[in-house]
Structure to design on (282 residues):
């Protein structure tokens, strides 16, 4: 009986650590509306993308943390001097109608690890700046990627996440090519810098409140490819490539550290060998 209990624990260690069946909301886009809410041919459209995405991930009907009072979101971006072609994306968030210190707080690489500890208590969602024309850098992206287990756990318990274009375009602020690494379900994203001409919103995107006018008139910087399962396409570019995705997953697998996997696998092997030896002796 004791051996059976240990075996069950090992199985949980290897394949379990399952999160709850209640998950939050995710909105990913190859647009950079943090930049274009300030500059470009269609500031109103970019502001509307920000508003639609933030409303989606902060909706208290689906976000349990917002419903419980965590009504701020955490905006992730550096505070370096913006290179040519970039701006402080935080100003695009402010231009979209959100007030620093009231609706959201800023976290840079220097403060991000500590801020992520307040997910669910202070913050109901994470909003990640673009790396072009915003100023998300590799330093912030590395921290997000390293904390992906905590982020997925946050999402699985009802939190929200909105992430803008990651492509290492412009000044090359994210050179390690680890885009959206904090979201293990993103099968593939690719750099594609293009003018927003001929983009189309899907019926799902329209149900969120977006129009074709919102997603045209500026520029975008990455597309998504692969199978995403629980995420629906929000808009396509003129070539039919996916520009934005959104959805409310039932559950997202939590990455298990390799050391834990090795421990669980070793325990199962040990128990299995012991069982075989007893069978052979019998």
């Amino acid at each position: 009986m004791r051996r059976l209990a240990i075996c069950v624990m090992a199985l949980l260690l290897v394949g379990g650590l399952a999160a709850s069946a209640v998950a939050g909301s995710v909105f990913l886009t190859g647009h950079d509306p943090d930049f274009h809410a300030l500059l470009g041919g269609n500031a109103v459209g970019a502001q509307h993308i920000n508003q639609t995405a933030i409303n989606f991930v902060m909706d208290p009907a689906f976000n349990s943390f917002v419903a419980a009072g965590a009504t701020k979101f955490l905006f992730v971006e550096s505070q370096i001097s913006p290179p040519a072609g970039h701006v402080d994306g935080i100003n695009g968030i402010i231009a979209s109608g959100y007030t620093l210190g009231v609706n959201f707080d800023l976290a840079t690489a220097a403060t991000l690890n500590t801020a992520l500890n307040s997910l669910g208590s202070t913050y109901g969602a994470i909003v990640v700046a673009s790396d072009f024309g915003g100023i998300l850098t590799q330093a912030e992206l590395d921290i997000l990627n390293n904390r992906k287990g905590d982020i997925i756990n946050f999402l699985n318990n009802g939190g929200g996440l909105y992430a803008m274009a990651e492509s290492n375009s412009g000044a090359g602020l994210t050179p390690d090519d680890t885009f959206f690494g904090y979201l293990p379900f993103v099968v593939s994203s690719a750099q594609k810098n293009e003018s927003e001409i001929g983009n189309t919103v899907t019926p799902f995107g329209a149900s969120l409140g977006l129009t074709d006018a919102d997603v045209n008139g500026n520029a975008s910087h990455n597309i998504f490819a692969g199978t995403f399962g629980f995420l629906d396409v929000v808009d396509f570019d003129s070539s039919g490539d996916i520009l934005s995705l959104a959805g409310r997953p039932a559950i997202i697998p939590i990455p298990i550290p390799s050391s834990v996997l090795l421990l669980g696998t070793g325990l199962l092997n040990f128990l299995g060998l012991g069982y075989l030896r007893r069978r052979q002796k019998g």
Remarks:
- Residues 1-21, 258-273 have pLDDT under 50 and may be disordered.
- The chain has one domain: 23-250.
- The beta strands are 25-29, 72-76, 104-107, 123-128, 160-163, 188-195, 200-201, 219-225, 232-236, 242-247.
